[in-house]
Structures are given as structure tokens and as C-alpha cells.
Amino acid sequence: MKLADRIRDHVQHRYVDPARQRGAESFTVVAGEVHRDMKLANRMPAVCGALRSKALQSGCRVSLVRWSGPDQGSTAEATFKLLAVPDDSAVVPSDGLLDVREGPPRVRNHRITPAEVKKAHEVFEANEPLT
């Protein structure tokens, strides 16, 4: 996995998902905190680039509303607004496996019905093999 992907994944799990669970409208990420949390060395430009990326915004359904501080420094702060996540946005990966890193199964790459997502969650919770 590329460093930018790892940074975006970290931001999603450490900042975006908790903000959604709290019901927040926005949240702020400090570049230096991401850099430190990920135990990176001399990668501040990569962290700042990932925070400003369209890939982060579209992948996490957020919008960058404010950037304060230096362009590529540890004190740079990115403030994001959480965008609505459509209920029917569940998708299945091309290999047919569910993404079950945390919480109920999430699926990628093509749309499935809410009933299929519910069934997948039930199977996951029961630890039964998917059929």
C-alpha cells in the first residue's frame, strides 16, 4: 500500500469515522499529529498532500473547508466538513469479499441492496462462511 493510501486510511479511522459516530458536522486534523501517530520520519509533505487530496475527500465523503498554518508543516491544520453518506452506497469488492475491518460489513465497487448488506452483517456476526 502506498504511503498516501496509508495516511488516508489512518485519517479515516482515527478522525473521520469517530466524527461521524459522534454526529459532528466538522472536525480538524493537525498534520503533525498524523505524522507522529503513524511514526513517520521526514514525511510531512506526504501527510499534508494526503490531507489536501481529492482522494481523501471523495473516499471519506468530506470536504476541506479550511487550511491554516504552513503548506507543509507540522502545525498545519485541515478542517473538514462531513458530507452525507448515501444509504445505498454499499458496494462489493471485485473479489466478492466484504470489508469488515471495523463494525458492520462495508462493501465496495458495485451497488447492492440494503437487504443484502443486512444479510452479510448477520452472516459476519454469526461467523458463518459467506455463500
Give an overview of the whole structure.
With 131 residues, the protein is an alpha+beta fold. It has 5 helices and 3 strands. The protein folds into 2 domains: 3-82, Ribosomal Protein S8, Chain: A, domain 1; 86-131, no CATH class. A hairpin with an 8-residue loop joins strand 2 and strand 3. The longest helix is centred in the N-terminal third of the chain and has 20 residues, at 3-22.
SSE arrangement:
Blueprint: H1 3-22, E1 26-30, H2 31-37, H3 44-52, H4 54-60, E2 62-68, E3 77-82, H5 114-126
Antiparallel strand pairs: 1-3, 2-3
Provide key terms for this protein.
alpha+beta, Ribosomal Protein S8, Chain: A, domain 1, 131 residues, 2 domains
Give a brief rundown of this model.
The protein has 131 residues and is α+β, with helices and mostly antiparallel strands.
Helix content: 40-55%
Main sheet characteristics: 3 strands, antiparallel
Top CATH class of the largest domain: Alpha Beta
Strand content: 5-15%
Specify the number of helices.
Answer: 5
Mean pLDDT: 80
Main structural class: alpha+beta
Count of individual domains = 2
- The count of DSSP E runs of length 2 or more, i.e. the number of strands, is 3
